[in-house]
Design brief:
alpha/beta, Aspartate Aminotransferase, domain 2, Aspartate Aminotransferase, domain 1, seven-stranded mixed sheet, 14 helices, 12% strand, globular, binds pyridoxal-5'-phosphate
Length: 371
């Protein structure tokens, strides 16, 4: 039995919306992007969403728009995808890593204050696997030291913690619509925020710093545009937005399915004594983006091989960022610098987890793990 790591769930509604978009004039940023932005903002309960080409772009532009740059330090976690740390480097700032909680893999709020220096300008917590970080604790620290707060919500569209949702206690929340994400258009991203002037600046920055978008320039009589600051080319297209729009109404329904799947996996995994799984703490509604397990470090890679040879797709999310060659070479990081994140990195495996996965497939994965 083959069990894919991920299969998207896009269907007729998405196809129809894309065809409708293709039959119009504007393939680039236009009405579909506006519709998506409005609907997603409504879903999130935030005032603004700015559609982009990726979450990497969302993190990059959020840092730029919040005036973080050369000489500044930004605190984040080493237990994340490289995009989080790379975006900090794109603006010329320095990523300062803080170790994670051993149970959850989330940045440990108790360790943040010790990492703050006179150069620290921002914190980027990452809501790993769908579980939100303790935003109440982190935002208290951000306020105390006057730091900007940018959430990496690539894994966390649906998450809630202690009654708080992404974007409510931060300056900006960054989303990914990459191929395997809970909401997907293959490649895409967005920033959500309550501050209108920040959203306006992000809209300018996503298009080279141009004062008017293509839709603005070509609707009605031609209008001249100006360039007011140096920006990037990160604007979401109408085609990407057309793929995303129908998914918004089904976010909750799809979450329910992943909730059942998560519980089914946990039921089977709990019976296998050598396996462990990150904890979801009280007061959290996880977005359930990835289903990860932890196995003894000296057996992890062999188990990955065994799963693959049984046609079961799996991944590693993630090996700790500071131990990747570039970060080791550039910053001189060594083993045992962030031991909890490193342990996660050596022990974790992500199992197939997507809507449509049959109960028999989950049982099959558990059987192979047990064997
Ligand atoms: C935690 C995290 N942050 C950022 C990103 C970057 O997202 P994108 O691929 O949309 O740039 C990802 C993507 O996998 C991610 O998992």
């Amino acid at each position: 039995m083959k069990v894919e790591f991920y299969k998207h769930n896009l269907g007729v509604e998405e196809q129809q919306k894309v065809l409708e978009c293709l039959s119009g004039i504007f393939l680039t940023t236009g009405q579909y992007v506006k519709d998506f932005e409005n609907r997603f903002a409504q879903y999130l309960g935030l005032k603004n969403v700015v559609g982009l080409t990726s979450c990497t772009a969302a993190l990059h532009l959020s840092l730029l728009a919040l005036d973080i740059g050369p000489g500044d330090e930004v605190i984040t976690t080493p237990m994340t995808f490289i995009a989080t740390a790379n975006a900090i480097l794109y603006v010329g700032a320095k990523p300062v890593f803080v170790d994670v909680e051993p149970q959850t893999g989330l940045i440990d709020p108790l360790l943040i204050e010790a990492a703050i220096t006179s150069r620290t300008k921002a914190i980027i917590p990452v809501h790993l696997y769908g579980q939100m970080c303790d935003m109440k604790a982190i935002s208290k620290i951000a306020h105390k030291y006057n730091l900007k707060l940018i959430e990496d919500c690539a894994h966390c569209v649906e998450g809630v913690r202690d009654g708080v949702r992404p974007g409510q206690l931060s300056d900006a929340a960054c989303y990914s619509f990459y191929a395997t994400k809970n909401l997907t258009c293959g490649e895409g991203g967005a920033v959500a925020c309550n501050d209108d002037s920040l959203a306006q600046r992000l809209m300018t920055l996503r298009q080279h710093g141009m004062s008017k978008s293509a839709a603005d320039r070509y609707t009605g009589a031609y209008q001249h545009w100006d360039m007011t600051e140096l920006g990037w080319k990160y604007n979401m297209s109408n085609i990407q937005a057309a793929l995303l729009i129908p998914q918004i109404d089904r976010i909750e329904e799809r979450w329910q399915k992943r909730d059942l799947l998560y519980k089914l996996y946990r039921h089977h995994i709990n019976k296998i004594s050598y396996l462990n799984a990150p904890k979801i703490v009280d007061g959290v509604k996880s977005a359930y983006h990835l289903f990860t397990i932890k196995v003894p470090a000296d057996q992890r890679d062999a188990l990955l091989g065994r799963l693959n040879s049984n046609d079961i797709g799996c991944a590693v999310n993630y090996r700790a960022v500071h131990l990747l060659t570039f970060y080791k070479d550039e910053f001189g990081y060594k083993l045992n610098t962030f031991p909890k994140a490193e342990q996660f990195g050596f022990e974790t495996i992500s199992l197939p987890f997507w809507i449509g996965l049959a109960e028999s497939q989950v049982e099959h994965v558990a059987r192979i793990l047990n064997a």
